[in-house]
């Protein structure tokens, strides 16, 4: 593609530059904040007095649900990723993220996911109204038939695709694209925060993706996973909270670590115990994967397990306590400048302390018997999510704003903003802690239980707090219009992003940054090819692919012809993308000698494939785990051979394993330059894969005839969903394989250059291994 | 209104545990936030204040500071506080989960949107349950449709009502009177009004009602 002028719409639609995408994320997440904030105000108006008639029960439930979902997934995470997109490559001295087009796709999938979920408001029955936790079996079509919930599920799936792409992208970028001399431990705090965040995302999102897939199947195909009394309701809570607890750290880490950078700059001292803080955060992340049971204390789960969860949860407060104390120690002996970013940073720490302490209450299984489902909880999590995380991200936006815009903002208005923000905040959320016994998620409440005053206060506070946001936007707008030029390093920070222009040029640095042995960062001048020409930064396919996914979901849920249009667009886009790939247009230069430990030897794309397969393994692990869970809870289950033919399964196992072998042969051939062997191996793999799918189709048809249909019970639900997901992976593999075969017949792979064949092999073997688990689990026992 | 202590042993124990957390939490919060504020004020920049000796500089990786010893100390402080309150939790949770003997057993079914109570003699009531004062009542809670939570509002205690699963919760109170039972888990449009009356009667009155079979 040719040059696109900077001030055109096409720039924003087709950009793949990390800074442009960061800005898109920022604008989008603030938009979602305003929308979800408006819903919260409606909720607060309804709760001002007992027995108000402002919202109906149904409208109220939609309002709190969409408020919660959007705030968590379409505001707080994306706004952190806005900063991550813009700042992380700068902080490590990279030219862009490792996979710019995937990054653009992450953004568009997020946006279209939000739109499809929001469409629910315009369908009969309205938007999703089950609470953000979407508990089973209320979430099934039997109890909530409205399309709004299915649309939200589609939105979540798009969001999770976006998140998966982002995690892979950031992991590879941070591991592979640091400048020479910037070891992991020397990285600025914010980049560390993002690294930990994406690691947790990689582990926490796939189980949720599995749960949403199962729910989508229940709602669209009529399977009965979550409807079944054999554990359906509990299964959902397990999957949801296995995701849900790490998710709070996913939301917290970018903010908490951005605070680190702000503190260092405005105290002029290094973080107290940086290694300790990082170690504590890693410990917290590991623990966060083991404490989901504290959300299930009142479900009657095993008492011993409950006590273990109590102890583990209280243990998890230790690392966070340590981090906060280390931050306070950072202040000691510093030279603290109380500029706007620092004020918000300190405010955030104070509020997070309170939220952390009330969290310890909830970790007690005994106290939880009383407070689960009350306004005390609402108060607690707003202190962590809004007081802690959101406030810290406001600090971070103020901190990096001069870098992003090239302009300063009014310090006076900034302080005014801070004052109104804090006053509103405290009047809004402190009273909720006095409502220890008031139920949450109720559109109305009776008088006479002592709840009136605190609800009135909270509503007043909500409006004051809401008022602080237009002030924020006004400050940013004024700064853009008429702010003082910021210069490279307005706050006197040390890290790399402050060494380039504000805003940075498209290729970030005019030269190559390096960190020498004494720890000094220099920008060496380079021969001109190091800079990244701007026109390379465009691709139309990320947005069209995301739009296609949007249309396909929309069609599948509401109106089928739309899905056909989506499918056509998808095919066209994938072909376009493949062509771009053949032309090798996208090559983000890595620094010739970067700091790449621990993945020194692994090529960029290969590392990406590994990370992706890792998340896939967790996804299948969750599907298999769910099957085992319901099976152990069921009294009866068809005996082996009763429904599924063992022979048939064995044949398919044989076919698939053989196809792994032919894939290996193809790779071995191209390694020695044997083109015929390559083509034969690839074709054989393709034919075997196809045979596997055909055999499955015949099998499904047969058992369907015999009454083993989608809706015939738990065994059918588990079988169709798990092996169906596997079959979809085989099919996707065949699409990629078709592209590889086409390229192979054009002589596109040589002895030196055949990495795609190798990466495809990794994926294909993975899919085969999954089947090796599925065959015995479903056919033999 | 009866005082918390008069309501039920588990409620008073719950409240004293909550108060323990509240005391320790408030003290911790005040101390830590004071540290934050005091240090900010003490080290804030003002005329004459010098840069610290290890001050950060542009384009220079900051020096490391902080020791492992300090980290261990911090960890121990936080862990010590948590340890104290965990002990309290364990005692309370046993009381909540192990009802004393000699009790009235009532089966509770949550449904969209109400509560059905079944007594040992087969008697059934909806959205209203009567129990005798001074005796232990155990509720066996389940659901016939979606996920609910059976909460005894004044008693500050409750347990989930889950289809396919029975959870129990007990109370015993000396104070006759009317109390509120409310669903505490979002269960659809009727959730906010999914309430029932808990009527605690003098034992003799209860006996008459229970055996009389009247309304
Ligand atoms: C204008 C500011 C805000 C106000 C007035 C507000 C108020 C509320 C209210 C009244 C509820 C309903 C509680 C219930 O009935 O259970 C709620 C729920 C919630 N809020 Fe906020 N909130 C605000 C900002 C935020 C932010 C910034 C976040 C996250 C970053 C957030 C996350 C949540 C979540 C996750 C829920 C739970 C939703 C559910 O129950 O499904 N809120 N909020
Ligand atoms: Cu949790
Ligand atoms: Cu309910």
The CATH superfamily of the largest domain in chain A is identified as Cytochrome c oxidase-like, subunit I domain
Multimerization status: heterodimer
Structural class of chain A, by secondary structure, is: mainly alpha
- Second rung of CATH, namely the architecture of the largest domain in chain A: Up-down Bundle
| CATH level 1 name of the largest domain in chain A | Mainly Alpha
Helix and strand run of chain A: HHHHHHHHHHHHHHEEHHHHHHH
- CATH level-3 fold name of the largest domain in chain B: Immunoglobulin-like
Q: Note the beta-strand portion of chain A.
A: under 5%
Question: CATH-wise, what's the superfamily of the largest domain in chain B?
Answer: Cupredoxins -  blue copper proteins
Distance between the termini of chain A: 56 Å
Structural domains of chain A: how many: 2
Small molecules in complex: protoporphyrin IX containing FE, copper (II) ion
Query: What is the mean predicted local confidence, pLDDT of chain B?
Result: 90
Kindly report the CATH topology of the largest domain in chain A. Cytochrome C Oxidase, Chain A
Distinct helical segment count of chain A: 21
The number of strands of chain A is 2
Low-confidence stretches of chain A: 529-535
Pfam family, one (chain B): COX2
Protein name (chain B): cytochrome-c oxidase
Transmembrane segments (chain B): 20-41, 70-91
Subcellular location (chain B): Membrane
Q: What report would you give on this structure?
A:
Chain B: InterPro entries: CcO_II, CcO_II-like_C, Copper_CuA, Cupredoxin, Cyt_c_oxidase_su2, Cyt_c_oxidase_su2_TM_sf. Chain B: One of its GO terms (molecular function) is cytochrome-c oxidase activity. Chain B: Belongs to the cytochrome c oxidase subunit 2 family. Chain B: It is a multi-pass membrane protein. In chain A, a hairpin with a 5-residue loop joins strand 1 and strand 2 (521-524). Chain A has helices at residues 9-14, 18-47, 57-92, 100-118, 147-176, 189-220, 232-267, 274-288, 303-331, 340-363, 365-371, 375-405, 411-429, 452-482, 541-557, 560-582, 604-633, 646-671, 675-705, 714-745, 755-780; strands at 512-515, 521-524. Chain A folds into 2 domains: 9-523, Cytochrome C Oxidase, Chain A (Up-down Bundle), CATH 1.20.210; 636-781, Cytochrome c oxidase, subunit III, four-helix bundle (Four Helix Bundle (Hemerythrin (Met), subunit A), Up-down Bundle), CATH 1.20.120. With 781 residues, chain A is mainly alpha-helical. Chain B folds into 2 domains: 4-46 and 54-97, Orthogonal Bundle (Helix Hairpins), CATH 1.10.287; 104-211, Cupredoxins -  blue copper proteins (Immunoglobulin-like), CATH 2.60.40.420. Chain B has 4 helices and 10 strands, in the order αααββββββββββα. Chain B has 215 residues and is α+β, with helices and mostly antiparallel strands. The radius of gyration of chain B is 26 Å and the shape is elongated. Chain B starts with a helix and ends with a helix. At the A-B interface, helix 3, helix 7, helix 8, helix 9 and helix 10 of A face helix 2, helix 3, strand 7 and strand 9 of B. One copper (II) ion (CU) binds next to loops of chain B.
């Amino acid at each position: 593609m040719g040059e696109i002028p900077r001030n055109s719409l096409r720039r924003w639609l087709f950009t793949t530059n990390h800074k442009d995408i960061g800005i898109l994320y920022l604008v989008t997440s603030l938009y979602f904040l305003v929308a979800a904030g408006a819903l919260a105000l409606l909720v607060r108006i309804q709760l001002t007095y007992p027995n108000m008639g402002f919202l109906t029960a149904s409208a109220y439930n939609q309002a709190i649900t969409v408020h919660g979902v959007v705030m968590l997934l379409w505001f707080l995470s994306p706004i952190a990723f806005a900063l991550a997109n813009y700042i992380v490559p700068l902080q490590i001295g990279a030219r862009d993220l490792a996979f710019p087009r995937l990054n653009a796709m992450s953004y568009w999938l997020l946006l279209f996911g939000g739109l499809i979920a929001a469409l629910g408001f315009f369908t009969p029955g309205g938007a999703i109204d089950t609470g953000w936790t979407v508990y089973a079996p209320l979430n099934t079509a039997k109890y909530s038939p409205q399309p709004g919930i299915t649309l939200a599920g589609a939105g979540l799936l798009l969001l999770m695709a976006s998140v998966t792409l982002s995690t892979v992208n950031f992991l590879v970028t941070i591991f592979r694209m640091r400048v020479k001399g910037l070891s992991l431990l020397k990285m600025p705090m914010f980049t560390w925060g993002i690294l930990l965040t994406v690691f947790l995302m990689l582990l926490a999102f796939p189980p949720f993706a599995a749960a949403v897939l199962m729910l989508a199947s229940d709602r669209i195909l009529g399977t009965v996973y979550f409807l079944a009394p054999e554990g359906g309701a509990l299964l959902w809570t397990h999957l949801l909270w296995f995701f849900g607890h790490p998710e709070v750290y996913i939301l917290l880490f970018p903010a908490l670590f951005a605070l680190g950078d702000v503190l260092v700059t405005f105290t002029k001292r290094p973080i107290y115990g940086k290694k300790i803080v990082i170690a504590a955060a890693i410990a917290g992340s590991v623990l966060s994967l083991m404490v989901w049971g504290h959300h299930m204390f009142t479900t009657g789960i095993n008492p011993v397990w409950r006590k273990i969860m109590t102890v583990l949860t209280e243990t998890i407060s230790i690392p966070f306590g340590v981090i906060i104390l280390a931050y306070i120690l950072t202040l000691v002996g510093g030279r603290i400048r109380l500029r706007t970013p620092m004020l918000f940073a300190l405010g955030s720490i104070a509020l997070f302390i309170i939220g952390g302490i009330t969290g310890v209450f909830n970790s007690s299984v005994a106290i939880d018997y009383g407070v689960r489902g009350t306004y005390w909880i609402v108060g607690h999590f707003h202190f962590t999510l809004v007081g802690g995380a959101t406030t810290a991200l406001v600090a971070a936006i103020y901190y990096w704003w001069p870098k992003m815009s090239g302009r300063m903002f009014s310090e006076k208005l900034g302080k005014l903003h801070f004052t109104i923000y804090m006053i509103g905040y405290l009047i809004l959320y402190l009273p909720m802690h006095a409502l220890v016994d008031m139920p949450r998620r109720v559109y109305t409440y009776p008088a006479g239980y002592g709840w009136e005053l605190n609800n009135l206060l909270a509503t007043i506070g909500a409006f004051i707090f809401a008022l602080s946001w237009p002030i924020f936007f006004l400050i940013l707008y004024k700064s853009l219009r008429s702010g003082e030029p910021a210069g490279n390093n307005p706050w006197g920070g040390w890290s790399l992003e402050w060494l380039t222009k504000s805003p940075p040029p498209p290729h970030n640095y005019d030269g190559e940054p390096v960190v020498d042995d004494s720890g000094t960062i220099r920008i060496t001048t380079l021969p001109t090819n190091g800079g990244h020409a701007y026109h390379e930064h465009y691709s139309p396919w990320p947005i069209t692919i995301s739009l296609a996914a949007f249309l396909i979901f929309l069609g599948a849920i509401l109106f089928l012809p739309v899905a056909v249009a989506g499918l056509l667009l998808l095919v066209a886009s994938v072909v376009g993308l493949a062509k771009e790939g053949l032309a090798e247009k996208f090559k983000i230069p890595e620094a010739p000698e970067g700091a790449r430990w621990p993945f020194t030897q692994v090529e960029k794309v290969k590392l990406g494939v590994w990370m992706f397969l890792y998340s896939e393994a967790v996804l299948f692990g969750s599907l298999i785990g769910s099957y085992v869970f319901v099976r152990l809870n069921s009294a009866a289950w068809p005996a082996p051979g009763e429904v599924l033919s063992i022979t048939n399964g064995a044949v398919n196992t044989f076919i698939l394993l053989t196809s792994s072998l032919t894939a290996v042969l193809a790779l071995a051939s191209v390694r020695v330059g044997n083109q015929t062997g390559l083509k034969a191996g690839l074709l054989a793999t393709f034919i075997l894969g196809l045979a596997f799918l055909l055999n499955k189709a015949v099998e499904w048809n047969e058992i369907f005839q015999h009454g083993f249909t989608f809706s015939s019970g738990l065994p059918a639900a588990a079988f169709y969903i798990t092996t169906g997901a596997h079959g979809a992976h085989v099919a996707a593999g065949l699409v990629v394989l078709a592209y590889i075969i086409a390229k192979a017949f054009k002589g596109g792979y040589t002895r030196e250059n055949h990495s795609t064949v190798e990466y495809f092999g990794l994926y294909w073997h993975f899919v085969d291994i999954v089947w090796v688990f599925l065959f015995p689990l479903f056919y033999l026992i | 209104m009866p005082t918390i202590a008069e309501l039920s042993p588990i409620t008073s124990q719950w409240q004293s545990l909550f108060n323990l957390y509240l005391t320790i939490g408030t003290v911790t919060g005040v101390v830590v936030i004071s540290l934050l504020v005091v240090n900010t004020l003490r080290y804030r920049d003002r005329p004459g204040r010098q840069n610290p000796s290890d001050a950060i500089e542009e384009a220079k990786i900051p020096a490391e500071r902080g020791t492992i010893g300090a980290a261990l100390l911090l960890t121990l402080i936080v862990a010590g506080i948590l340890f104290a309150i965990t002990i309290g939790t364990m005692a309370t949770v046993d009381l909540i989960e192990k009802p004393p003997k000699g009790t009235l057993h009532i089966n509770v079914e949550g449904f969209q949107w109400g509560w059905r109570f079944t007594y040992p003699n087969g008697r059934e009531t909806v959205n209203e349950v009567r129990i005798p004062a001074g005796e232990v009542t155990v509720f066996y809670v389940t659901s016939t449709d979606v996920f609910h939570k059976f909460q005894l509002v004044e008693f500050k205690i409750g347990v989930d009502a889950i289809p396919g699963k029975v959870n129990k919760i007990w109370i015993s109170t000396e104070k006759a009177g009317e109390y509120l039972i409310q669903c505490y888990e979002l269960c659809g449009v009727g959730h906010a009004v999914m309430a029932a009356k808990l009527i605690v009667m003098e034992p003799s009155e209860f006996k008459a009602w229970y055996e009389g079979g009247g309304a």
